[in-house]
Amino acid sequence: MGFENRDYARSGNSGGYGGGYGNSGGNWAINYLLVANIAIFLLQQLSRQPGMGAGNDPVSNYLSLSLHSLEQFQIWRLVTYGFCHGSFMHIFFNMYVLWMFGRIVEPIYGSKEFLAFYLTGIVVSGLCHVGIQLVDGNIAGVIGASGGVNAVVFLCAMLYPRMTILFMFVIPIEFRFLAVGYALIDLFGVISPGDSVIAHAAHLGGAAFGVAYKYFGWRIMPLLSFGNWKMPKRRPKPNPEIRPYRPPEPPASQNLDSRVDEILIKIQEQGEASLTDEERKILTDASKKYKNRP
Q: Single GO molecular-function term (predicted)?
C-alpha cells in the first residue's frame, strides 16, 4: 500500500462543467466497481485530445467535482468524480488497494451493503473536499476513488487492527499503526497544503466515515429499503366454526437444525450484517447445544 493511491486536484478555470481532477462466490460488488472504474478511465483516455493535461478531457470535465459544480446543482458529480482518475498509476493503486481490502470487507457485510457503503464513502469524501473549498476559497476540482477506498481501508483496519500489512510491500507493520500514519499525513496536508495537488480533505472524510461506520454500527441498506414497503393486507375475520389443521410440531432439535440451516443460507446470500438479534441468538444457542452433543 503506497502513497500513489491519492486523489488529484487541479486549480485554475474548471470550465463549464466544474472540471478538475484532483473473492469469490457471490461477492460481486468489488468486480463491478473495478470494471466501472476501468471503463470510465478508458473513456477519459479516448476523449483526451493531444496536448490536454491529465484530468482536462471532456469526460473528466463532466464527471469531476468542485464547489462551482454543486452551486449549479450538478449533484451527480458527488458520485461520478470517484470513478475518474488522472493517470494509469492513479487508477492502478486505487483499484489494487480497493481489491486488496474490499475482498476482506465485502463478505462480512454482503455485496449490497458493501456497495452502498463504498458509494456513501465517495459522497462523504466529496462533501469534505467541497467543505474545505468553502473555507480556503480554492476552486480546484477533484477526481479519484481514494476517498471511497480510504473508507474501505479504515473500516478494514477497525475490523482487523492487528493484521500485519507489508508497507511499501516490504516492511511489516500492524494495520492500526499504518492507518493512523496515513491519517496524520492527510491531516498535515489539510493544515498545511502548500502547492499540493492531493485532496487530503477527501481522504480524511473517507477515513472518518469508515471508522464511524464500524464504531457506531451503521448500516446503509436499511435506509434504502423503503421501496420494498407495502400496504399491510387486511386479515379476514376468523370463523369460530372452522378449525384449520395444524400438523404436529417437529422435535425441538429438528426445529433448531432447520432454523440454523436457514440462517446460514441467509448469511451466504446477504452477509452476516443482515442477521436480526433473534437469529444471532439462535446461532449462539445452537453452538452451545452442538458442543454438548455426545
A: serine-type endopeptidase activity
Indicate yes or no: pTM above 0.85: no
pLDDT band, very low/low/confident/very high, at 244 (cuts 50, 70, 90): low
| pLDDT tens readout for residues 124-174 | 999 999 998 888 777 778 999 999 999 999 999 999 999 999 888 889 999
Res 258: pLDDT:
80
Return the amino acid letter for 197: V
Q: Can you name the residues that pair with 167 across neighbouring β-strands?
A: 171
| Of 169, 203, 168, 187, residue with least CA distance to 82 | 203
Q: What is the pLDDT of residue 240?
A: 60
Between the CA atoms of 123, 128, 132 and 135, what dihedral angle is there, to the nearest 10 degrees?
A: 100
In DSSP notation, 121-137 reads HHHHHHHHHHHHHHHH-
Opening angle at CA 220, ends 125 and 115, nearest 5: 70
Q: What are phi and psi of 92, to 5 degrees?
A: -60, -50
8 Å CB contact between 204 and 135 = no
**In 10 A of CB 103, how many CB atoms?**
18
CA distance 138 to 12: 9
C-alpha grid cell for residue 22? 484532483
Neighbouring residues of 140: CB distance < 8 A, sequence distance ≥ 6: 9, 10, 11, 12, 14, 20, 22, 66, 133, 197
d(CA 164, CA 19): 39
Between CA 29 and CA 145 the distance in angstroms is 15
Q: How far apart, in whole angstroms, are the C-alpha atoms of residue 10 and residue 41?
A: 18
